[in-house]
Amino acid sequence: MDYSIKIGGEAGQGIQTIGNTLARVFSRKGYHLFTHQDYESRIRGGHNFFQLRFSDSPVMVSGDSIDILVALDKESILLHEKELSGYGIAIYDSSALKQTYDKPYFLDVPFRDLAMEHGGNKIMVNTVATGAVLGMLGMETNILIETIKNTLKKKDGEIIKGNINAAMAGHDFAARHCQRCSFSTASQSKPKMLITGNDAIGLGTVASGCKFYSAYPMTPSTGIMLYVAARAKEYGIIVEQAEDEIAAINMAIGASFAGVRAMTGSSGGGFALMVEGLSLAAMTETPIVIALVQRPGPATGLPTKTEQGDLLFALYTAHGEFPRVIFAPGTPEKAFYLTNKAFDIAEKYQIPVLILTDQYLADSQWTFDEFDLKKIKYTDYRIRGDVFKDVSGYKRHPFTDNGVSPLGVPGDSKHLIVTDSDEHDEEGHITEDAEIRKRMVDKRLFKKLPLIRQEIDPPLLYGNSHPEIVIAGWGSTYGVMKEAVDRISKKEGIAMLHFSEIYPFPGTEKFDYLNLLNNAKLTICIENNATGQFARLIRGETGYEFKATINKYDGRPFTLEYLLGKIDVYIRRLQRRDPDMVSGMR
Description:
Elements: E1 2-11, H1 15-28, E2 32-38, E3 45-55, E4 66-71, H2 74-80, E5 84-92, H3 94-97, E6 106-108, H4 111-119, H5 125-137, H6 142-151, H7 157-177, E7 193-196, H8 197-207, E8 210-215, H9 222-230, H10 232-235, E9 238-241, H11 245-258, E10 261-266, H12 268-284, E11 288-294, H13 311-316, E12 325-327, H14 332-349, E13 352-358, H15 359-363, E14 365-368, E15 382-383, H16 385-389, E16 407-408, H17 434-455, E17 460-463, E18 469-474, H18 478-488, E19 494-499, E20 501-503, H19 513-519, E21 522-527, H20 533-542, E22 548-551, H21 560-577
Parallel strand pairs: 1-4, 4-5, 5-6, 8-9, 8-10, 10-11, 11-13, 12-13, 15-16, 18-19, 18-21, 21-22
Antiparallel strand pairs: 1-3, 2-3, 2-14, 7-14, 12-20, 17-19
Helix pairs in contact: 1-5, 1-6, 4-5, 4-7, 5-7, 6-7, 8-9, 8-14, 11-12
C-alpha cells in the first residue's frame, strides 16, 4: 500500500490545513508518512500545493504520480491532472470553480454547499474536503474527529460541532458517490511521531539545554524560532526576535559569553549579515550554534523554494582563519541528534557550529516511532560556582596543549573575565605582538582542528557493500537517494554514500569510503545546486572526482521518478561502454 495525495489551490484557501490534518490522521493510524509543500511568497493568490505520501512501509520522498488530487482552483487541475495515476481521482467543487469536468476520473464534491448545510459556515470547506479524502480511502473518521476536537479545543463548542458535522458530510458524500474508488488501506495500529525538519532542530535545541535563542524571522528558518518560543516558558528559555540578523548573532554571542547555551538561525540573506559576528565568536572563542536553512539565491531569490546553494558560503564565509563545524542532516531524526552534537562540540571546543538544512527538509514532515532521548548528551564544559572560585590566576585564553582554554562564567567568582575582538594575549587584552599572534592562531586553529576532526563521523553507506554503482550526496537528498537505491538494487549492485557531517571533512580512518568510490565503475554526486559544490569540496579535500553529477537547481526538490530517470541515463551509457558490467542492466 503506497498512496499519494496532492492538495492544490491558492494561498489563503487552507491547503496547509487540509494537508496537516490528513498527516495527523495518517500518522496516528500508524502509517509511514512523508509530506512536502510548494508555496509562493505571497499571502494570497498564486499556486500552492501540499503533497502527502503514506504507506505501510517507510517512505521518505515524494513521487510524480498522484492517486488523489484535491483541486481547490482551476490551476490545480490544469497543472496536476496529468500527474494522476491509472486509478487516480481528482475531486473538486464545480460551483466554486464554475466549471464541470466530465472525465470519469473527476468527482464533483459540493464542498461549499456541504460546509454551509452541515457546518453552518463556508469556511469549513477545508474540513469537508478532509472528510471526503478519508471517505474515498474507505477510512473511518474517529481519529479525524479527535483531531478536530484537539485542534479546536480553545474554540466554541458549536464551532467544534460544526466542523465535525462538515467532516462527516464530506466523508459520507465521497463514500457514496466515488464509484471508481478502489483504494485499500492496510490496517495499522501503533501511532507514529510526526515531525518536520525545523521542529526536529527546535526539539534538539530544547533537549540540549539551550537557554537563549535570538533570530530575525526569515523563511524558511523561522519555524525553529517558533518551536523554541512555544516551549520557552516551560523550559526557561529566552527567545528574542531581534531587529535584524546582525543583532541576532551578537545577542546570541553575548548570551553565550554570559554563561548559557545560545543559538541563532536564518537563511542565506540573513546569514550574510551574520558573518562579522561569526568571526567575532571565533576570535573570542565563544561557543555558538547557528542554523542556516537554505533557499535559492542570489539576493532574495526564491524565498519559499529549496536549494543546496550555500554549502561553500557556509564553509568559507567570515574573515580570518578559524575552525568551524558544519552538519547537514538528511532527516528530522538526524537533525535532532546533530543539533545536540552541535551544542556539545561548540562548547567543548569553543567554536561556532553550523547546522545546514534547506526549505525542503525544514518544511517536510516525516514519521518515526520515537527519538531516543538516551542518546542526548549534555556536558557542562564551563567552569562555574565553587570550581571557578577555587581556580587561581584565571586567564581566559591561556595556551594549552589541546588549544582549549578554561571557559569561565562572568560574575561567578572573583576572577575577571576579559576577551577582545582584536588579537589578544592569554588574559584577553589586546595585543599586536607577532609571537603571541602566531601562538594564538596555532592555539585556535591547528591545535583544535585535529581533535575536532576526530569527532566527525564518516558518511553513511546504504546498499551493496561492494557496489559497482555509487550515488553520493549530502543533507536533504538522503530520502530520495535511499529510495532510489532500493528501486535500482533489485537489478544492480548499487549503494549510496550520504554525508551529514560535512566539515571538517571526514577522514577515512573509521570507514574508507574513498576505496569504495575508487572501486566502483560509476559514481554520481547528486545535489540541489547548479555548480556541484559538494563534488568540488570532496575533490578539494580528497582529490577524488566523481564520474558524473546530477544537479537540480529550479527551486524544487528531487522526486523519486526524476532521479531514477537521470541515474538510468548514466547506467545505460556505462552499459554501452562496459557490456559485462552487470547482467540485467536497466
